[in-house]
Amino acid sequence: MQIEKGIDKLVKTVRMMILDKPGHFGKVATAVGNAGGSLGDIKLVGYGLEYNTRDVTIFLDSEAQLQAVLEEVGKVEGVIISDIIDPVLEMHRGGKIIVTSRNKVDSISTVRKIYTPGVAKVCTLIQRNPELVYDYTAIYNTVAIVTNGTAILGLGDIGAVAGMPVMEGKAALFSALVGINGVPILIQS
Q1: Would you call 47 a catalytic residue per the annotation?
Q2: Is the pTM of this model over 0.90?
Q3: What is the signed CA dihedral for 50, 54, 59, 64, rounded to 10 degrees?
Q4: Active-site annotation holder among 21, 47, 115, 140
Q5: Does residue 43 carry a catalytic annotation?
Q6: I want to staple 19 with a disulfide (CB 3.0 to 4.6 A). Which of 46, 54, 78, 79 is the partner?
């Protein structure tokens, strides 16, 4: 796993249209540096006859420094700033985890096997021999990540709902690092 540079810094992605002529992006990079920002990823997101649109990730010390960077970049002829994107918020938009089926559900035949009436066969087997739950369900590889929000990592007592991004992050790490399914459960108490 690679640790991101500037992890303790403010990170913003500035979408800008830059005149497609030699040296213009260099002027943008100089303007960012003159205002104290550090460049991160640079991604071409669109191109046209005169301008190319790029997402430029910038590491900053503060919102005030972001404003200074925007002012400096705004002075560069041939550059139009079109959006400021917060990549942290974008990464969390819609949540960080999903639940998906291991089986492709593409026909009524599949539905009959994974749900009804086929699922009854598996339920009956597990009823007769409860240990089979580890063979025929996801229980063998699934854990609950439970919080009432009173001790959220680094934030303290912020409530269960506000703690959900941390619980989703834990679930994502369990999946990525050790292949375990994590299911966040919030208890409002």
Answers
A1: no
A2: no
A3: 50
A4: 115
A5: no
A6: 78
